[in-house]
Amino acid sequence: MTATDAPTLTDDALVAVARALSHPARLEILRTLAGRGTCLCGQLVDVLPLAQSTVSQHLRVLREAGLVCRETDGPRTCYCLDAAAIARARAAFDALFDGLDAADSCCGSV
Q1: What is the pLDDT of residue 80?
Q2: pLDDT digits (tens, 9 = 90+) for 15-26
Q3: Tell me, what DSSP letter sits at residue 31?
Q4: Which of 7, 48, 103, 106 has an alpha carbon 20 to 30 Å from 38's alpha carbon atom?
Q5: pTM (2 decimals)?
Q6: DSSP character for 49?
Q7: What strands lie across the sheet with 68-73, from one edge to the other?
């Protein structure tokens, strides 16, 4: 499924995605998952300078926004990006700013 084929998000869902993207630790979690494919929570704690409980809270926000999914295998929980949800979020942001051209900016910024 391409971003143009993805169903659009509701405004509430788009707000949840934007909120999930608004914290540097959550951006780093997404970068780490994108770079590794899948990752255990313990591995994320090793990468980030945060306590395990804090990483878990950030993962909860990302899961609630639909950007991350998880699989539990006994005591281990594996997290990965939800490619379809990310495609929907990209399409929703593209649609939000559809028709915007940097040259048309009222502030003259490039």
Answers
A1: 92
A2: 999 999 999 999
A3: H
A4: 7
A5: 0.80
A6: S
A7: 38-40, 76-81, 68-73
